[in-house]
Amino acid sequence: MRRSRTGPRDADCLPEPPQPGRVLDARLHLLDRQVLDVDGTPVCTLDDLELDVVAGSRPAAGPDRSPGSGDQPPIDGSVPVVITALLTGPVLGTRVFGGRPPVSRWHRLPWSHVTDLSSAVHLGVSGSRFDATWLERWVRNHIIGRIPGGNHDPEGSG
Q1: CA dihedral 95, 98, 101, 102 (to 10 degrees)
Q2: How far, CA to CA in Å, does 155 sit from each of 49, 54, 80, 152, 158?
Q3: Closest of 134, 106, 114 to residue 44, by C-alpha
Q4: Looking at per-residue confidence, does 12 or 127 come out higher?
Q5: What is the DSSP string of 133-150?
Q6: What confidence category does residue 157 fall into, taking pLDDT thresholds of 50, 70 and 90?
Q7: What are the CB-based long-range contacts (under 8 Å, 24+) for 69-77?
Q8: How far apart (Å, rounded) are the C-alpha atoms in residues 70 and 62?
Q9: What is the mean pLDDT of the chain?
Q10: Which residues contact 36 (CB under 8 A, 6 or more apart)?
């Protein structure tokens, strides 16, 4: 025997209208990914994102928000947002002990430099122009370089 539904059919499941651009799930597509520069050299690991509300989509002024006050609405899914910068910094301690690093400790990589998203985030500029590469260089010189065989390129030596 077939059961029939009562009430409106799929009224709450209407598809969203198409949006310009690409929709990304930050946890799935971006966070903790390796960032590579234009030459394929590792720059950093992506730790966080800097978001901004899409122009023209700010909510109307409410009882706690006056028009033109300049304060940002909360980014809670009620308004569309865009990525303005990729952030990397000293997050190991905060992942272990909780909290967030100070804003001054974050290294920002402008989103306008991103050219491709795959298993890594690819930049269209050289990574040497960013301060975020100091950790990659330090690990290469002080840890990897001290491992026997760590100073040669295994693919170029054949």
Answers
A1: 170
A2: 34, 45, 45, 9, 6
A3: 134
A4: 127
A5: GHHHHHHHHHTGGGSTTT
A6: low
A7: 75/51
A8: 13
A9: 77
A10: 42, 43, 120, 121, 122, 123, 127
The CA distances from residue 35 to 96, 100, 145, in Å, are 23, 21, 21
Residue 89 token pair: 């910094």
Nearest to 44 by CA among 150, 143, 130: 130
Closest CA to 22 of 116, 155, 129, 133: 116
Distances (CA, A) of 59 to 20, 33, 63, 84, 97: 20, 32, 12, 20, 35
Sheet with 107-110, strands from edge to edge, namely: 48-53, 81-88, 107-110
Contact of 100 with 13, CB cutoff 8 Å: no
Confirm if 134 and 142 have CB atoms less than 8 A apart.
no
Phi/psi of residue 6, nearest 5 degrees: -110, 145
8-state DSSP, 124? S
Q: Can you state the percent helix, strand and coil of the chain, rounding each to 5?
A: 25, 20, 55
